[in-house]
Amino acid sequence: MGAYEDLMAFQRETEALSQVAGRLGWDQETMMPAGATPQRAEEHAAMARVLHARRVDPRIGDWLAGAEPTDAVAAANLRHIRRDFERTAKVPADLAAALAKTTSLAHRVWAEARAQEDVAAFLPMLAEVVSLRVQEAQAIAGNADAYDALLDDYEPQATGASIARMFDSLRPRLVQLREAIREKPAPQTLSGMFDEAAQLMLSEKLALAFGYDVNHGRIDKAVHPFSSGSGLDVRITTRTSAVDPFNCFYSTIHEVGHAAYEQGIADAHLLTPLGRGVSMGVHESQSRIYENQLGRSRAFTGWLYGEMRDAFGDFGIADEDSFFATVNRVSNGFIRTEADEVQYNLHVLLRFDLERALISGDLAVNDLEAAWNDRFRADFGFAVDKPSNGVLQDVHWSEGLFGYFPTYSLGNVYAGCLHKALRNAIPDLDNDLARGDTSRATHWLRDNVQQYGGLRTPVETISHATGAVPSEAPLLDYLEEKFGRIYGL
Amino acid sequence: MGAYEDLMAFQRETEALSQVAGRLGWDQETMMPAGATPQRAEEHAAMARVLHARRVDPRIGDWLAGAEPTDAVAAANLRHIRRDFERTAKVPADLAAALAKTTSLAHRVWAEARAQEDVAAFLPMLAEVVSLRVQEAQAIAGNADAYDALLDDYEPQATGASIARMFDSLRPRLVQLREAIREKPAPQTLSGMFDEAAQLMLSEKLALAFGYDVNHGRIDKAVHPFSSGSGLDVRITTRTSAVDPFNCFYSTIHEVGHAAYEQGIADAHLLTPLGRGVSMGVHESQSRIYENQLGRSRAFTGWLYGEMRDAFGDFGIADEDSFFATVNRVSNGFIRTEADEVQYNLHVLLRFDLERALISGDLAVNDLEAAWNDRFRADFGFAVDKPSNGVLQDVHWSEGLFGYFPTYSLGNVYAGCLHKALRNAIPDLDNDLARGDTSRATHWLRDNVQQYGGLRTPVETISHATGAVPSEAPLLDYLEEKFGRIYGL
């Protein structure tokens, strides 16, 4: 065998082990007995060490030096492997170990600080995490921009500057839209209690309606819904709420979007570097277009209204138009994960600007809470009442995930681009959605985005599907049109 | 750190990875979506290669050379590690690969041959498996007995000759007991249909009654019940049958016996070579004493009768004594896994003698079916009707598991020894069992057997608990007393 074949055989085994490690995480959130926690920590650590040793195996360097790509797929495989190898190899083992240890500790300190509403208790740990991540970024990128080096782990080839340009265009129109909405009467809310078994049945029906392949996946309950796995075994979870069945239904559709991406990748890429979603941003574009542009559309919610009436009887909403408004209700809130389509990105933009300033050193950790609270009041129009509703609400920074937040809004921007192209390609799509039939939409996404996996860069992936460079404009146009209609703006 | 500490740290990580690989098997039988099979095969193979590489890591030899045991636990750890390392290192990589490949193929050929009732289609594969296993035994043991070398993998330090002496004493009294029973009227059978949900509820109640710790385990359904995992995460499975709820209940109690062994090992041995059951035979002794000597006792079945009446209403059995006879009904059958307490060991003894002759070369593969059928008629009194009820019924030989079968009956023999000692220690145990309370019995087993894990050899483990060298006599005395009482012999 040649160097390329040897490299790919080695890589395939690494990908298989990575799937095993990922499923261990799935098991922990869905199946693991509570008392197994200490042993599970050792199992996770052992798998992580095996995977890390493979990722820095010096043979990879030799194979890369000798491998000649013969086609676009091989070139893309080599690009991914080279990128990961060089990135991983640049981080000293001591620094990697310090990061693993400190973030694990910081996570616990954060959880305790959040429970106690005690920002000061968290800040020393956060300062240490920021310092270590900056050291890591410098090890990877030298004197180049540190935030870009971190961002690259989640969204290859994106830069803080290009994202900032996009987000800076997004912010004023979102704030303006939010303010216009706030002057209008709020839509109704659901009333009554919603049976759990009926929620789970309709949740599964929704998953199947959006093309989730249960022959290569399964649906379980978890505290925080997630999608897990690649290739032939892509599992999702959901949750229920007795008073808010939308939480269940739209969590499910969101995770089906992630899972459909993994399930939609061409079989030829199974257990190769191309066999998983290409970036967090593109991944989120799939979950978001399923959840929002399709799942919260007027046409689809018309169908869902009938399904919910069948499942639950009367829940206080008189007709499809009112239901559409209820589904898309914009309301004040502190929490990112509970935010509506209009305000969600404002939450993310706030975090992006603050974390970028933390990494550059423009913002000191000790000034973070004040900066958060000022910005929140500016963008949302009211004040943070307590740290767990403000600077301590998200887990990300305690785990060192700087550069992760912007991929949420990038995903929304990409979903806006894809939705515009999809509607151009299938002008009568609403006729399908009004029957609960998403197949032409999901097949379009599979054919134009999902099947390629990691073949192209994230931006090329969106450009290839839409025929245009990604821009925030389609998302803004979509939001202004949709919420203008609902709120009579 | 010294050599011993380095070795144990390495070993601990191997044990953790081994737990991950085991849980992958659990997932496959309980949770995995059907379409994931091809990917799962690659995941299993990747984990197997990682584990094999660690087991032959040359550093183990260096650490072993430098390690000085400071106490009995350290000495036992070193004994286990040395034994595994030397055994694994002696088998050439080519031979190990050929065995993995051939047994995987032979398993498929066997399944097809069994479905087609075509012994001839399986024999060439079986001959190859036998030849490879003999080569493996010779690589391990040189000119010493090949069967002993294979047996040692499942029951360390046992020999074919010593087991044969024990089994040869067992056989005539078992045949005699079976013949005496056959002349008596058969007990009643259950009648009616048994609700699945009620079976699963009572099954869980039985698991808890026998001390299964669901904080460190869980119960799921599987086609073939099994127990899986060690330490803090020991899971069991069960199955139901609409006409035969005993299948569910006694499968559950059996697997709880295996799981209780793993859960009962002292926390100090977690993720060390002592942290799992010491041998297949001792493991089976726990599952069997839970299932049979305790679970099928007159006292416990009296309690179970009331529970089943509460769960299912009338099922055609008038009183506790009749129910005790029904639970322990002896009936003609071809299939080992469905056999009663009296005849089960006859099935195992047949296989032990035949596989020992196959490995020694005294029996040719081509003569195996005739030998099976002759022996079956001699021990069971009627003729095998088709290969799937005879020589093709068990999966073991296709997978190369020569030396595994005798551990089933060794387990029964050990259970007989332990039961005698248990009854001596707690003379009024039946008062507990008649209330469904097994706690004094299971605590005695935990304190005298389970907690020690792999500290002693298998025979020493039983001797330590019972104060006597293991012998087949207590099992025979128990069977003759119990079935004499049921059948009025």
How is the secondary structure organized here?
2 copies of one chain form a homodimer.
Chain A: H1 3-30, H2 37-55, H3 58-66, H4 72-90, H5 93-116, H6 119-141, H7 146-151, H8 160-182, H9 196-209, E1 219-221, E2 227-228, E3 235-238, H10 245-264, H11 280-294, H12 298-312, H13 320-327, H14 341-360, H15 368-380, H16 405-425, H17 429-433, H18 439-448, H19 458-466, H20 473-487
Parallel strand pairs in A: 1-3
Antiparallel strand pairs in A: 2-3
Question: What name is given to the CATH topology of the largest domain in chain A?
Answer: Neurolysin, domain 3
Number of helices of chain A: 20
Q: In what range is the share of β-strand residues of chain A?
A: under 5%
> From the alpha-carbon coordinates, what is the Rg of chain A to the nearest angstrom?
23 Å
**Class by SSE composition of chain A:** mainly alpha
The strand count of chain A comes to: 3
Biggest interface pair, counts: A-B, 38 and 38 residues
Q: Which architecture name of the largest domain in chain A does CATH use? A: Orthogonal Bundle
H/E series of chain A: HHHHHHHHHEEEHHHHHHHHHHH
Q: What's the mean pLDDT score of chain A? A: 97
- The side-by-side strand order for the widest beta sheet of chain A comes to 1-3-2
